[in-house]
Amino acid sequence: MSRLSRSLDYDKLPNIRDLGGMTAEDGKRIAEGKLIRSGHLSDISEEDQKNLGKLAEIIVDFRTDAERREKPDVLTFGAEYFHIPIFDKVVAGITRESSADQEAFSKFLLRPSEAKQYMCGIYREFVFSDHALAQYAKFVQLLLPQRDKAILWHCTAGKDCAGVASVIIEEILGVPREQIFEDYLSTNVYLEADLQNLTMLLTKQMGEKAALAKESLEYLLLAKEEYLQIFYEAAAERFGDFKAYLRTGLCLSAEDMRRMRENYLE
């Protein structure tokens, strides 16, 4: 059985992964073809559209309105679409509107320690923002009915908002914490090409300052173990422990979580 989510073969979706096969509670595993995480769907090919039509019946978009306007999802394959923005404002380094990217780079490009501190603060906001809590609560309710095909959730890169959603699901289904961290960090494999392209541009433009800028970009664009640790610590600080975060923060009953395990474990 797989320890990590499985990358799917799509033309223009480098970070689309199936949670199916991950080990979970009581020796069970997550069923394949039911729980899919991804980056945005704005650049997908016709072949990708056909394959998504076969795979998914629900699409959940965690991006802001501005992100959607800049890069609208291509949704010609018949899936039902839900817009559940985790943040209700531009958040530099997380939401990926052009203005947010420019703000993040102008603030932190040559200040890697500040970039790291800033991103850790954002991961606290996933827990301490009442808006984010309410939006994730809406999302998990979509997971309760039994469905014939998959539910796919995404943000822009598939790293932060979508990554936290994946962590929530994996916790409910009883995936071991060590495995959850490993899967969260595996996102970096699929984002490496973007980081390399930006680094090449910076090297040409910034000369000796490029190494410092690359360090900042890694904090802004990649998944980091300390970010997820901050998320867990924030859940414990606000609610007592992660189970209480699920129950009180996301309004999930014991019966809700039992239904999810019934739906998605085999």
What does this structure look like?
The protein has a single domain (6-264), classed as Protein-Tyrosine Phosphatase, Chain A (Alpha-Beta Complex). Strands 1-2-3-6-4-5 form a six-stranded mixed β-sheet. The protein is built from twelve helices and six strands. The protein is globular. With 266 residues, it is α/β, with parallel strands linked by helices. Helix content is 54%, strand content 9%.
Give a brief outline of the structure.
The protein has about 270 residues and is α/β, with parallel strands linked by helices. Helices cover about 55% and strands about 10% of the residues.
Q: If you average the pLDDT, what whole number results?
A: 89
Which strands sit side by side, in order, in the main sheet?
1-2-3-6-4-5
β-strand amount: 5-15%
What characteristic shape results from the CA principal axes? globular
If you compute it from the alpha carbons, what radius of gyration comes out, rounded to the nearest whole angstrom? 18 Å
State the end-to-end CA separation.
12 Å
Number of strands: 6
For this structure, what is the CATH homologous superfamily?
Answer: Protein tyrosine phosphatase superfamily
CATH class descriptor: Alpha Beta
Question: Which CATH architecture?
Answer: Alpha-Beta Complex
Q: Could you say how many structural domains there are in total?
A: 1
Q: Quickly give the structural class.
A: alpha/beta
